[in-house]
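In the current project phase, the collection of sequences with tokenised folds has grown. A representative record is quoted in full directly below:
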Amino acid sequence: MSDDSIRAAIKAHLGVNPEWLSKRKEEIVEPELEIVDPHHHVWDMPGNRYLFDELMADFQSGHRIVGSVHVQCHSMYRADGPEEMRPVGETEFVNGVAAQSASGAYGSAKVCTGIIGTTDLMLGTRVEPVLEAHLRAGGGRFRGIRPSLAWHESSQVRALDIKPHILMQQQAREAIACIEKLNLSLDVWLFFTQLDEALDVCRSFPGLKVVIDHAGGPVGIGPYEGQREAVFAEWHKRIQALAQCPNAVIKLGGLAMRYGGFNFNKLPSPPSSDLLLEKWKPYVEACIQSFGPSRCMFESNFPIDRGMCNYHVLWNAFKKMTLHYSPEEREYLFRRTAVETYKLAI
């Protein structure tokens, strides 16, 4: 699949309505709690600009965001040069955004202090010079790779038009070995039906940090519409199996994407943090109980999740979900797991 096709697919799943979002304002819960947002994007797509100014508007909406990690989003690629090297342009661009933040002129948050880029795992061992180029371009901030992996047999669910079972291919395993060799992490966004493949990677590369994005991809659309309890049971079983791998960590978020089937964007006004708490707490609690707080981290997944909720409301919900945890456990969930996983200077 071409990069242009991937970007078109991303755009098709975005539906941000600022006027609708403005209908929901909440008082900030625990405004002094430090947060590292370990999963957001910066991009400039038609009708969905989310660059430094837009990101900072969310970061400064009331919560104490002290740092963040940008995760690849097929944006700002190089326009020419070898095809496999073009994604390095995104790392170059994001490193510039991080440098703008590091100047201190725009607040104390260390924006994009970690950068996760991408590459084609099917390059096999030829991926190594690409990884080295990312490391050079990242100015000391580059931390890992997230390849395009989300696939489902149903066209109603399938996110990208890519080959299935990429993680099980020999070329991909050779590329993952290079990622491990360079002491980088591997982020994976997969649907819950693919988690067995992530489990196999974790077992095959015990020295590699594997980050499971978006709570392991529970699905509530297409063939799974109206099957939430059955999906939860199967998803939970696979989450518990993954949690047995000490090199796996999981991000708690991404549930406002269309794949979850919660359809908050169809409400007359944006959801409250109490509604998010009601709908998402079972998934969040299951992940924390399986992995433990020290291997869980809350994420915003903005601006994608912005299509269904406000940034400040999202973090209010996460805080409310965890009030019964100890201060140390909550420090892991909101800051420390992200810092340790991505080796952030925060």
